[in-house]
Amino acid sequence: MALLIATPADASAARPGAPGVGDAYFPLAGNGGYDVRHYDLDIRYTPATKAFVGVTSISARAEQALSSFNLDLRGFTVRSITVDGRAAAFTRDGQELTVTPRRDLRRGADFTVVVRYDGTTGQPTDNTDALYGWVSYADGAFVANEPEGASTWYPVNDHQTDKATYDFTITVPDGKTAVANGELVGRRSSRGWTTFKWHARDPMASYLSTASIGDYDLRFSRGPNGLPIIDAVDRDLPDTADDGIARTSSIISYFNDVFGRYPFSSFGAIIDDDEDAGYALETQTRPIYSGAPSESTVAHELAHQWYGNSVSPSLWKDIWLNEGFATYAEWLWEEHNGGTTAAAQFDALYARPDTASLWRNVVADPGATNLFVASVYDKGALTLQALREKIGDRSFFALLKAWYALHRNSDASTGDFIALAEKISRQPLRPFFQTWLYTAGKPVTW
Length: 446
Ligand code: ARG
Ligand code: ZN
Prior knowledge:
- The chain has helices at residues 8-13, 248-259, 295-303, 320-336, 342-350, 374-407, 414-425, 430-437; strands at 15-16, 34-46, 51-62, 66-72, 77-83, 86-87, 89-93, 96-100, 110-120, 133-137, 140-144, 164-173, 177-180, 183-190, 193-204, 211-214, 216-222, 228-234, 270-271, 280-281, 288-289, 311-313, 410-412.
- The mean pLDDT is 95.
- It contains eight helices and 23 strands.
């Protein structure tokens, strides 16, 4: 048994955890000094009044001696916080919730934080004006957090470099359905309220969590290797809303072959009937769509389960590792089906004039307000096709697999990708990536 002996040096070393993880795009996203292992989210939500009552229990480990630490939380009234069962002091400043436990936390200590909070939810929007965080609608809530919207509904270490497992207990009026990540492990009604329990056993980044509430029918089926598939489809949608997800199992089988075995314990879709139709997010195990998705969008969000969700971008400037890959995966699925080849997709996009939006931004550092621009998606995918032609199919597909195998359940950077591409292809590729990823404009030679 290891004996931890507190020395005076240890005690004096206790200091506040940092208010951010050091991601330049979102300096206050996430926090320093601890690592969350598990979130237990308990939510009661009333769509008619948007009344939200939450209790979040966080199991974490101190990575330094902590005199205080921060969580990210926007809005709400915080009623109480305990650390290891004892009342803790707290202050708030913008999205930063600073918790000061009764006693310092030793480095390496496991601790549990319980936050009780409540309020009325609104309709937050981010700097791209897209759906963001806990979005309240008349019939429920549409919950999509990318990049840092988890803090609009629970206290969180809101950065993908701190993944954790999750339990959700969501209580809604009878007749409403609450859908989260992972598997449904309980459903019970009492006195007009129904409680849905979901368990997500694979490590997950906070931006990929969801707890969407609506008029959903839940459908349970099985995919490749017995993978549980749980779909939630809004009852108000026409039957054709399912067309895009009809081939989910075939797409999983194909990606299993090309990327490596599907990363998580289940899959499925949440298909809503919102006004802002056209929004989709790769929420882990259960992508969410504001309206009926096309098959290529389903392939895109499915590919993110490998690229983005299991292998997450270390910093938000690495977002092309998500979007360039998922866009390229749409092309691969299309090519696999005998449709347009990836090479033909390349030619069509490459033909766009110098002034086209896809050439505007720097792919591997687009700027915080440009995470989802055409350069990230399309030029990102073009980069992968150009790479495939440069290093050959054999190296290229070995690289796709190795990238996932090496970094699964973790995060990685563009630099890591370049290094791996050089290693697998045994070619110097820095000038190539300099041209494609780090220079704005249309590449001429590479
Ligand atoms: N990651 C999502 C997808 O392409 C897109 C999210 C767009 N978010 C936004 N704020 N515009 O699958
Ligand atoms: Zn995407």
